Amino acid sequence: AIAERTAVRLGLPDGDVVDVRRAGLLHDLGKLGVPNLILDKPGRLDASEFEVIQRHPELTLRILQPVPAFAAVAEMAACHHERLDGRGYFRGMTEPELAMGARVVAVADVYEALTADRPYREAMAPEAALMIMREEAGRHLAADVVDALEATLG
Known about the structure:
By secondary structure, the chain is an all-alpha fold. The protein has helices spanning 2-9, 14-26, 36-39, 47-53, 56-64, 71-78, 100-114, 126-136, 143-153. The protein contains 9 helices and no strands. Helix 2 (14-26) crosses helix 7. The chain starts with a helix and ends with a helix.
């Protein structure tokens, strides 16, 4: 829903909004391949555990890509941990390689992650999450998408 509302605010065409919503719903499908001991760990992940978690976007792509109806959705969903500066995972893509839909899903994912309870920390208040996201705008997250998210929440 966060991704969908942000896509609408950005004026994406209706078909793209539908794809963004689907990608938002399916982006973590690859976590089915990550053991619950890692997903539910209350503390910091060690290097080998983090390596396993970093595989989930690739697994999402591999699950969705063979389904013709999810071709566009698969790519968007698989990019949710990519960063504009190329320091994300799983492919280390950079800003020119990341379509608008992928940028929207990434921003929505970060906001949801920061504002949700996690096994290792309590949820942040929306304003605290947005402050962090504003700091990352332009390097990690697309600034125009962060602005659109903020406007939808406003």
